[in-house]
Amino acid sequence: MRLIEELDTMSARTIRFVLMDIDDTMTTDGKLPAASYEALWHLHDAGLHAVPITGRPAGWCDLIARQWPVAGVVGENGALAFWEEEGKLRRLFHEQAVRNDHPSLQKISRRALEEVPGCRIAHDQASRLFDIAIDFAEEEPFLPLSDAQRIKAICEEEGAVAKISSIHVNTWMGRYDKLSMAVRLLAYRFSYDDVLYSDSVMFFGDSPNDEPMFRHFPCSVGVANVRHYGQMMTHWPAYVTAADGGQGFAEGVRVLLDKRRQIV
């Protein structure tokens, strides 16, 4: 990983879309700092399309699409995308997304609670449509990553997909992820061609569930806390910020916009 300050001017000027995870990428200690929200407005004012790509639930995405200065939002790790157009909320659901009352997902919930002491169903579960979020580090007691890995193994044993974020293990039925729905949203809204223009996307993330995005987009950026995942990750971002969380996201946006203004 290279420091974000090493981003070259021509690469910065190629960027049209800025995608970002939310938890521990835009947030710091669970809160959205002013610097992160201000960075979204700076992107908006610069004519760039900002799109959060998150594991957070449909209910949160409804609010984000309506109230944040973004071009859309992908939620529940790729199950859905929401955006506002002509004053109306538009929604896109992945055709493989399965409602979270599926028997296998309910069995996973029971097994995780029984076999991994201290884990619990995330408090935002009531706002979810398609996945189950098992909390290991959003609220106390904070469990080690080894417990998150055990929860992930339980999910996979039951035939589900599972991803570890910085706070939850998200599990669902259906073959989709953040990347596939992000590309679909950009293509649908902006006629984006992923084969030709993947270098027009900058993605910010922080954890293992961001790996497909890190692997795919040449201009991927990890906030500094991505380093915490050590042996858990195979595909690392191209760049890394000096600061953690929200301050790291704001740092990356500042560098991007500064580089775009430089005279070649």
Provide a descriptive summary of the structure in words.
This protein has 264 residues and is of the alpha/beta class. The protein has 2 domains: 2-96 and 176-258, Rossmann fold, CATH 3.40.50.1000; 103-172, Hypothetical Protein Ta0175, Chain: A, domain 2, CATH 3.90.1070.10. Helix content is 36%, strand content 19%. The protein has helices at 9-14, 34-45, 58-67, 103-115, 145-157, 178-190, 194-197, 211-216, 245-261, and strands spanning 2-3, 17-20, 49-52, 73-75, 80-85, 88-93, 120-121, 132-135, 161-164, 168-172, 201-205, 219-222, 239-240. The strands form 3 sheets. Strands 1-13-12-11-2-3 form a 6-stranded parallel sheet. It has a 4-stranded antiparallel sheet with strand order 7-8-10-9, covered by helices on one side. A 3-stranded antiparallel sheet has the order 4-5-6, with helices on both faces. Strand 4 and strand 5 form a beta hairpin. Helix 2 (34-45) packs parallel to helix 9 and helix 4 (103-115) runs antiparallel to helix 5 (145-157). The radius of gyration is 18 Å and the shape is globular. It starts with a strand and ends with a helix.
